[in-house]
Write a structure and sequence with these properties.
The complex is a heterodimer of chains A (187) and B (730). With 187 residues, chain A is α+β, with helices and mostly antiparallel strands. Chain A has four helices and nine strands; from the N terminus they run αββαββββαββαβ. Classes of the chains: A alpha+beta (187), B alpha+beta (730).
Chain lengths: 187, 730
């Protein structure tokens, strides 16, 4: 009796674990960095913006979507794993303006708007905006005897979505899949 | 002892957790960031709760069904209660769920109206139209400015731009030449705004002769209209400059348009999210429904078990009570009606136990009394019989069995009339008292004479009729004593006293009588002659002879009455028999004497002289009985008996004479009982006395083949040794 109950429990948990995951993702095809000066590191990303249908429909229906690029300057510290020496982020919002009939890409950091007549243009602008992140470094951030690496990822800010859409996205797993970190060494 | 309600505690905790999770969910529903944080946790928690509840319920149900199939007491009632709880829980919740579902579906749809949708679109379109109107107007004006600037030299262009910008109330006017080079620019706030040429995406989208226009929202919520115009002459060498003008939209109009746009966007977003909204609500409602239902089922199971537990305990207790265990006490864990029932059950079992203990005490007392009575009865020398109203035997003591020579204890509940074959004395005894028993006289006494093979028995019988005993069927209590020996002893004592008086009163004058008669004969014999002398001699001789006879009689009485003065010693009875019988062997004897002496006859302790007298009496008596008969024979036999009375030596003296008349047989050992004309009647009485002095018994009965036989049984003395061999001699 007890065994049967636990077997049932295990089967239900297994069902929960194999819940279908989303297939669409924002993919970082290539990433590099460029020293702008001694204290400014420009990280450049080449992105494939493959948004899910539900999000595209949501954008077309006036729902704005917030994307965020996170960059970390990391170094390894023995068994303690990766430690972050510095970090930077770029937050961009994509929405549709019904009055101007244009998609609007808003750089939240620079308070800058760009208009795009089509969604494809808007995504290009979005990729361009998300693909440039500046990391500010202090003079004592980098130590010569330490090997540093850069890690970056681009995520959709689910919390900024309307709640029903979050429900829908969560329940149908239709949200943008959060990919892992893209890493490369700092040279 | 009250059990701790772990199940209810768990249920309460789970309920509190569910309330907390619902509160968190309600909070998260107001806050997107919070929702993002707690969604996964809530989902996992609720899934976990559902799984735990589902597992518990399935486990409980399977257990209940197994118990139901196994016929466990209370399982049927529990199952019925659970089914009832399920019905009570599922039906209303399902109804609520159904109507909630319907209300959600239709209610959410009712939020969205086609007319509102159309109105908002119209409003937006109106806003756009009015803005487009302004855009077209500014496009025409910008083109006109561009045409005017064609005639202005480059050196004067900045001034002209300033004038025009001020006139047009533009934010910025910028004249761009080849390669997107800024020729001149004028802004309303040079500090705040730097001139910027039109972007490449604008230039690419420009049509020849057609100005590029775009309504651009700004960060601060305002809107501007961007117009990029060319000279319109595309011939080689013509002016390739373009003019970009940025015009602010009237703030009031902007506010109105933005408000319309926001309303439109919100409505569109809302309409678009109608499905997810419904799904979210339905998911939440379904989750709450499932949890409520499962919680209700689990609560139903727990409550049913709690309700049924006292009933189950009562059933088990009743089973134990039915099997005779009154020590069962149920735990009283509640103050409701079931608790009252359990307390009543405990009181009942306690009362039953006390009553049973009391009954057991009484039974033991009764058994003890019965055993005591039985013991008294068994040790009574009087026979006791108890007969019920239908004269069936209920009780008989050992003395009764002994007196009536029948094992009556095996005949419990048997009518006395059925004992005729095995127990003739019982039949005789019953026939003698049947009339008074049937009359059911309250109290009576009677002397009952029964006849045994060895003589008669006189039973002094007393009885009472107890009508209220024996299950109200009545009971005859009969007490009787074997008075035979007592009467015999009484007679013997009387005869002894007679003998002593005779010896004393008669013997004393006999000697003077004899002496006087002899003196008369001597004195008068000398003086008388002839017939007188013969008469005197005859008379005196008769007197002397009769006196001698009387002396003999008196001596015989004396011997009978004398107290025994036995000289007991180990005695070989066979040897004594042979010695005595030697005197009766010869031609002039009236009968042939046959000895049949047993082998290995042990010694007895006896007085040889008294036993010799006994033998003489019996053999002489037998010889006299067969005198003159053909083939007269007297047989003397000995043998060893081993029975319940121990080892005894039996001596038989039998003859083949006429036997003893029955009227003499029952009192043949009494003095003066004789059918011989010359006997004293004391021979057999003395013989009986000798036997009794040796602790034996003497019996007399007639043989089926004729003749009488006297049987003497004397106990074997301790240490007696059997004779080497028996012998048989004619």
């Amino acid at each position: 009796m007890r065994g049967r109950s636990w077997a049932l429990l295990a089967a239900l948990w297994s069902l929960l674990l194999v819940w279908p995951a989303s297939a669409d993702a924002i993919e970082i095809r290539k990433a590099d960095h460029l020293w702008q000066d001694e204290h400014r590191l420009l990280v450049r990303l080449h992105l494939d913006m493959d948004l899910p249908e539900v999000l595209l429909k949501a954008l077309a229906n006036g729902v704005g979507a917030d994307f965020r690029t996170e960059v970390r300057l990391e170094y390894r510290r023995g068994l303690l794993g990766e430690r972050t020496a510095a970090q930077g982020r770029q937050q961009v919002r994509l929405e549709y303006s019904a009055l101007s009939r244009h998609y609007v890409v808003i750089d939240q950091g620079q308070q800058r708007l760009e208009l795009a007549p089509t969604l494809g243009d808007a995504l290009e602008v979005l990729a361009r905006r998300l693909g440039r992140v500046i990391i500010e470094l202090t003079p004592d951030t980098l130590r010569p005897d330490v090997q540093y690496s850069l890690a970056t990822r681009v995520v959709l800010d689910h919390a900024a979505l309307p709640l029903p859409l979050q429900w829908d996205a969560r329940l149908r797993s239709a949200s943008v899949q959060q990919l892992g970190w893209y890493r490369w060494p700092l040279e | 002892m009250m059990r701790f309600p772990w199940g209810l505690l768990g249920m309460g905790l789970l309920f509190v957790l569910l309330l907390a999770s619902l509160a968190v969910m309600g909070d998260a529903a107001q806050n997107s960031a919070r929702f993002e944080q707690v969604f996964l946790g809530l989902l996992v928690f609720h899934a976990l709760v559902l799984l735990v509840l589902g597992t518990l319920i399935i486990h409980q149900f399977v257990r209940l069904i197994v118990q139901f199939r196994g016929g466990v007491p209370g399982s049927r009632l529990t199952l019925h209660l659970v089914m009832g709880f399920m019905l009570v829980a599922v039906l209303p919740v399902s109804v609520v769920y159904y109507f909630s579902f319907k209300f959600l579906n239709e209610g959410v749809d009712s939020w969205f109206d086609v007319r509102v949708d159309g109105a908002l679109e119209d409003a937006l379109e109106l806003s756009r139209s009015s803005l487009d109107l302004r855009v077209r107007q500014l496009a025409l004006e910008t083109q006109e400015i561009m045409r005017q600037l064609q005639d202005v030299s480059e050196a004067l262009v900045p001034l002209a731009l300033n004038d025009v910008r001020a006139q047009m109330n533009a934010q910025e006017l910028t004249l761009v030449g080849a390669n997107n080079r800024i020729i001149a620019s004028s802004t309303d706030s040079p500090i705040r705004r730097l001139p910027s040429p039109p972007g490449s995406e604008i230039l690419l989208r420009m049509s020849p002769g057609q100005p590029f226009t775009r309504l651009e929202p700004q960060h601060d919520g305002t809107m501007v209209i961007r117009v990029v115009a060319t000279a319109g002459d595309r011939r080689p060498g013509a002016d390739s400059r373009i003019l970009q003008g940025i015009y602010p939209v009237d703030p009031r109009m902007t506010a109105l348009a933005v408000r319309v746009q926001d309303a439109f966007v919100d409505y569109r977003e809302f309409a678009y999210l109608r499905g997810p909204i419904k799904q979210g609500f339905i998911f939440t409602m379904s989750l709450a429904f499932a949890i409520s239902l499962m919680a209700a089922l689990w609560a139903g199971l727990l409550v049913a078990r709690r309700l049924v537990r006292p009933v189950t305990d009562l059933a088990e207790g009743t089973r134990l009570v039915a099997s005779g265990d009154y020590s069962m006490r149920l735990a009283v864990g509640r103050d409701d009606e079931l608790g009252f029932l359990v307390r009543s059950f405990n009181a009942m079992t306690r009362t039953l136990q006390e009553a049973r203990q009391e009954a057991e005490r009484n039974r033991r007392l009764l058994d003890a009394e019965r055993a005591y009575l039985e013991s008294v009865l068994q040790h009574l020398r009087s026979g006791v019989l108890a007969l019920d109203g239908s004269l069936r035997l209920r009780t008989a003591n050992a003395a009764a069995c002994q007196i009536l020579e029948c094992d009556l204890r095996g005949g419990h509940n048997r009518p006395l009339t059925e004992f005729d074959q095995d127990c003739p004395l019982v039949t005789q005894f019953f026939e003698a008292i049947a009339d008074v028993l049937e009359r059911r006289e309250p109290e009576w006494s009677r002397e009952v004479v029964v006849f045994t093979r060895t003589g008669r028995k006189v039973l002094m019988t007393r009885a009472v009729w107890l009508p209220n005993l024996g299950n109200n069927r009545g009971l005859h209590a009969i007490v009787f004593d074997d008075m035979t020996e007592f009467l015999r002893a009484q007679r013997d004592a009387a005869w002894g006293e007679v003998a002593r008086r005779l010896a004393h009163e008669i013997k004393n004058p006999l000697t003077p009588i004899q002496l006087s008669a002899e003196r008369l004969s001597r004195r008068l014999g000398k003086t008388l002659e002839g017939p007188d002398r013969e008469m005197l001699d005859r008379a005196t001789r008769t007197i002397v002879q009769q006196v001698e006879a009387m002396k003999m009689l008196v001596n015989a009485f004396r011997d009978y009455a004398e107290a025994p003065r036995l000289a007991l010693a180990p005695l070989d009875l066979n040897h004594l028999v042979r010695d005595v019988c030697e005197l009766y062997v010869g031609e002039n004897q009236p009968a042939r004497l046959v000895l049949d002496l047993g082998t290995r006859v042990p010694d007895i302790r006896g007085d040889a002289g008294r036993l010799r007298q006994l033998l003489h009496n019996l053999i002489k008596n037998a010889m006299e009985a067969v005198q003159g008969r053909p083939e007269a024979e007297v047989r003397v036999a000995t043998r060893v008996l081993q029975d319940g009375a121990g080892q005894r030596v039996e001596l038989q003296v039998a003859d083949n004479g006429p036997g003893i008349r029955p009227e003499f047989l029952e009192r043949i050992f009494e003095p003066y009982t004789t059918d011989k004309p010359r006997g004293t009647g004391l021979g057999l009485a003395v013989a009986q006395k000798i036997v009794e002095e040796h602790g034996g018994i003497i019996e007399c009965h007639n043989q089926p083949t004729g003749g009488a036989v006297f049987v003497i049984r004397i106990p074997v003395s301790h240490g007696g040794a059997a004779t080497a061999a028996g012998e048989k001699r004619a």
